[in-house]
Amino acid sequence: MLLQQQNAREDLTKCLIALGSNLSNEIGASVKIVEAAIDDLSSIGLFVVETSRFFRTPAFPAGTGPDFVNAVVYCETALSAEVVLEQLHKVEERIGRTREKRWEARVIDLDLIDYDGQIMPDIATFSQWRDLPLKLQLKRAPEQIILPHPRIQDRLFVLIPLRDVASNWRHPVLECTVDEMIAAFNAEDLAEIVPYSEGGAVGQG
């Protein structure tokens, strides 16, 4: 039986999902909401292999809301990348996510950041979104799946927990390791990303 399970899992695809929350709801504060979202992944066809520590991180862009609780999970799945993203949006909706404007404070945010190292839909489209100026990022969201997530290299709140679950992961376009991307940030930026403490007041707003 164990051998059959191992053989079955060889057919699954590896993917990485980033989670974040900086608002509370009936589930509780942000840490409880992130935990609930992780628990919900198995119901949509994602097998959670490993979960990072939870980290307390400043809202991005600065001043847009309370601090976040962020995490990354390493999963395996038989679903396509498009279906994974669709199902993640359904989990967000069930937990209470709204999408009234870009980068607002949110109950939960689930991002598919990598799907077996695939570049989707193509390198040109990925590069267009990676290089999009910040003022346009605030206004525009892609209407199709973009992989890897075009902002990974810019976001310590993804890179730090990502290192917990996939320290050997290499960006399929930039060809940089997680540590190399983290090294591009200064000490002040690094100091802002700290392991979550139960005594904090994250997500109480």
UniProtKB/TrEMBL annotation:
SUPFAM superfamilies: 6-hydroxymethyl-7,8-dihydropterin pyrophosphokinase, HPPK. Catalyzes the transfer of pyrophosphate from adenosine triphosphate (ATP) to 6-hydroxymethyl-7,8-dihydropterin, an enzymatic step in folate biosynthesis pathway. Residues 17-166 form the 7,8-dihydro-6-hydroxymethylpterin-pyrophosphokinase domain. InterPro entries: Hppk, Hppk_sf. One of its GO terms (molecular function) is ATP binding. This is 2-amino-4-hydroxy-6-hydroxymethyldihydropteridine pyrophosphokinase. It holds the Pfam family HPPK. Keywords: ATP-binding, Folate biosynthesis, Kinase, Nucleotide-binding, Transferase. One of its GO terms (biological process) is folic acid biosynthetic process. Gene3D superfamilies: 7,8-Dihydro-6-hydroxymethylpterin-pyrophosphokinase HPPK. Belongs to the HPPK family. Its EC number is 2.7.6.3. It is an enzyme of class 2 (transferase). It comes from Neptunicoccus cionae.
